[in-house]
Amino acid sequence: MRTVRAPATSANLGSGFDVFGVALDRPADVVRVEKAEKTTIEVTGAGSQYIPEDPEKNVVGAVAEALDAPAHIRIDKGVRPSSGLGSSAASSAAAALALNGLYDRGYSRQELVPIAAEGEAVVSGEAHSDNVAPALLGGFTVARHGAVTPVETDIPLVACLPEIAVSTRDARRVVPSRADMDDVVHTVGSAATLAVGMCRSDPELVGAGMDERIVTPARAELITGYDDVRDAALAAGATGVTVSGAGPSLLAVCRGTDRARVASAMLDAFEDVGVDARAYQTKVGAGATFH
């Protein structure tokens, strides 16, 4: 048996659509695998009633097939599905690392990224690496053309998850197919600022680098109260706020002493628009670990 904990993640970070990602130190999924003649799956935990246990429809089934590693796989969900916090990526990454160890396949974590991304294709229709890369490698990651660059960093964060469902497929449908050149130039500048901020562990630069005018405004329309919650977080001391992944979670960058105040402000703002929510006071954390 192998048991692996894989963290929630946040992708895009505003200016890095389909490229940037970070691992969060909480919440997380725990996946246990045992060798078997054919793959079977059990799911418990947050939102488990909505997750299929058919290996052909579950992300970990795709990972087991890609590794030629049939197993009985038990998933304890700590990351709610359709949260914008990399729920499918956490399960995929944990299963990839656990099955790689169970069958002694010998892949490095970098080599497991595209294998874990096969699980993402089950959910979104495409094998994206922006969530599975930080789930496996930890820290801040840049995933581009099959190559992944990880950066260790120390950035305080608040992830606020409202009780709203936004599917990855729906969130991708609203992404504009064209963009104004001024907005593209603005996004490039923001992405560069964010990357430098991550390398320096500078929350001011990271927050400023989240500002983006193409994808985020379109996805924000799917989240009740987005503008009010963002404004409340900034007023409470956040240096930047954006949609986490496909949403509906919002991700706020903070100075370490401001996290509790920012979390409280975001929860109050959601409550004011009639939406229940949960806030995680977290930070950029490590990747998947054996337990």
UniProtKB/TrEMBL annotation:
The protein's annotated pathway: Amino-acid biosynthesis; L-threonine biosynthesis; L-threonine from L-aspartate: step 4/5
GO biological process: threonine biosynthetic process
Keyword flag Zinc: no
Keywords: Amino-acid biosynthesis, ATP-binding, Cytoplasm, Kinase, Nucleotide-binding, Threonine biosynthesis, Transferase
Top-level lineage group: Archaea
Cell compartments where the protein resides: Cytoplasm
Domain GHMP kinase C-terminal: 196-270
GO MF annotation, one: homoserine kinase activity
Catalytic activity: L-homoserine + ATP = O-phospho-L-homoserine + ADP + H(+)
EC identifiers of the protein: 2.7.1.39
Residue ranges of domain GHMP kinase N-terminal in the record: 60-139
Pfam family, one: GHMP_kinases_N
Family: Belongs to the GHMP kinase family. Homoserine kinase subfamily.
Stated name of the protein: Homoserine kinase
UniProt organism field: Halopelagius inordinatus
